[in-house]
Write a structure and sequence with these properties.
single chain
Length: 314
């Protein structure tokens, strides 16, 4: 080996060792610039939800820093003794998963909170009510199957083990997922929110202001199940089937994706949803376009009280 080659090899080894020893969180350190406490992600999916979240912090929060990544604005604010990272999840499952993972990787968030709207599935709930499920399921992970020749059933693949009642040719399935400590992916039926955050939510509800919509006092329900999938669901029969299968409180387009990412990264999460519509249970046109703004505020008000209830170091 020549002296030049030897020098080059030494430089290359030094570069390699430096690269390996440089913490991936260089971006985390930059992203958390000014953060002095656990960093709590606060998300909404789109404009009405983001505006409602901003409104509850408008008077008493302090902006620490702002940064744009992949076209998204991430704002670090200080509120009630907490450092919060506000940013949009984006609409639907892929966006929500991608941006949640981005926040965990780049900014080192320690908790994930979401406030937004959803379609009501439980027939006992009403538009304007707020639900905080303790478990989240995928409703669109599924096998779409052909009917049998006699039309009395469906052709079931050998690999498929039905776990739920089907909706016509749609046979819901669990998702396969893996995280550290597992040797191979396993079927996951649900993703559970953090029990500590759920307890905080139960207490926070008692501190929330009175909320009304169309002359009715909104109710807040903590617990139960939620479902999510990449579908704007506005079908009465599907709604009835979904409630029968999952006994779900609500249906939306982001929550289970967020829950799965948090599960994979072992990051505690909590999702608060206010009901903007009945997911197809109404007569005529869905009026979510007219309810989303005021109803989103209900979820954000509960979010504010949850954050106030979190103790530093939770």
């Amino acid at each position: 080996m020549s002296r030049l080659q030897s020098s080059f090899a030494i430089l290359w080894i030094a570069f390699f060792l430096t690269a390996c020893s440089t913490p991936r969180p260089q971006a985390v350190q930059a992203g958390r610039r000014g953060a002095t406490r656990p960093l709590i992600a606060v998300m909404g999916a789109y404009a009405p939800e983001l505006a409602a979240n901003d409104a509850v912090f408008a008077e008493s929060a302090t902006l620490v820093s702002s940064e744009r990544v992949n076209g998204l604005e991430f704002r670090l604010i200080r509120f009630a003794g907490h450092d919060l990272l506000l940013f949009p999840s984006g609409v639907s499952m892929v966006n929500a998963a991608m941006n949640t993972q981005l926040a965990i990787d780049r900014f080192g968030v320690t908790h994930v909170l979401f406030a937004g709207i959803a379609g009501g599935i439980n027939p006992e709930r009403h538009i304007g009510d707020v639900v905080i499920p303790e478990r989240w399921h995928h409703h669109s992970e599924a096998a779409y199957l052909n009917p049998t020749p006699d039309g009395k059933g469906y052709v079931i693949p050998k690999y498929f083990k039905a776990s739920h009642e089907n909706f016509g040719f749609i046979f819901p399935d669990h998702v396969w997922a893996i995280r550290d400590g597992m040797k191979a992916p396993e079927r996951q039926s649900t993703f559970a929110v953090d029990p500590g955050l759920l307890d905080i939510a139960r207490k926070a509800v008692r501190q929330a202001p009175r909320m009304e919509f169309r002359g009715r006092v909104a109710e807040v329900h903590v617990g139960g199940d939620g479902i999510a999938g990449p579908v704007f669901m506005d079908n009465r029969e599907y709604r009835r089937w979904a409630f029968r299968v999952w006994k779900a409180e609500c249906l939306d387009m982001e929550s289970t994706a967020i829950g799965q990412v948090c599960w994979a990264n072992r990051v505690p999460f909590l999702i608060i949803r206010s009901l903007s519509d009945l997911a197809g249970g109404q007569e005529g046109m869905n009026d979510a376009d007219f309810t989303e703004g005021p109803v989103a505020q209900h979820a954000s008000l509960i979010l504010r009280e949850v954050i106030r209830g979190i103790t530093v170091g939770h």
